[in-house]
Amino acid sequence: MDTSTLKIGALVGLIAAGSLAMTVSAQSTDTDAVIVTEEAAIAAALEAVPGEVQEVELEREDGAQVYEIEILAEDGTETEVEIAAATGDVLEIEREGGKCDKDRDA
């Protein structure tokens, strides 16, 4: 085997290894992953807005996965709670007729 064949083989190996490392790195930093279960998202939504769950959808918003959970609140208003599928954080609470602050009592 001559040295040029060895050099080409080594270069191909480096390119393949680099490509694999980039793929693994991209997958490990994926913030779009659904980590929170639907049940955990519902629990977080009901903690923010007590009531009866009417509908649950997993949606993509602004490039991120979110659970949109519609709740018939105890006061009779329809409320949508958005939960981050990657973290379980309450992102937004929207009552029928307008938004409300997620940090205030819902």
Q: SSE layout and pairings?
A:
Layout: H1 3-28, H2 38-48, E1 51-61, E2 64-73, E3 78-84, E4 90-95, E5 98-100
Antiparallel strand pairs: 1-2, 2-3, 3-4, 4-5
Plain-language structure description:
This protein is 35% helix and 35% strand. It has helices at 3-28, 38-48; strands spanning 51-61, 64-73, 78-84, 90-95, 98-100. The protein folds into 2 domains: 1-30; 38-100, Roll (Nuclear Transport Factor 2, Chain: A), CATH 3.10.450.40. By secondary structure, it is of the alpha+beta class. The protein has 2 helices and 5 strands.
Note the main attributes of this structure:
2 domains, Nuclear Transport Factor 2, Chain: A, 5-stranded antiparallel β-sheet, 106 residues, elongated, 2 helices, alpha+beta, single chain
Q: What portion of residues belong to β-strands?
A: 25-35%
Number of helices: 2
Main beta sheet: 5 strands, antiparallel
Largest beta sheet: strand ordering: 1-2-3-4-5
Annotation, overall tally of beta strands: 5
Rounded radius of gyration (Å) = 23 Å
The pLDDT mean sits at: 77
Q: How much helix is in the residues?
A: 25-40%
At a glance:
35% of the residues lie in helices and 35% in strands. The protein is of the alpha+beta class. It has a 5-stranded antiparallel β-sheet with strand order 1-2-3-4-5, covered by helices on one side.
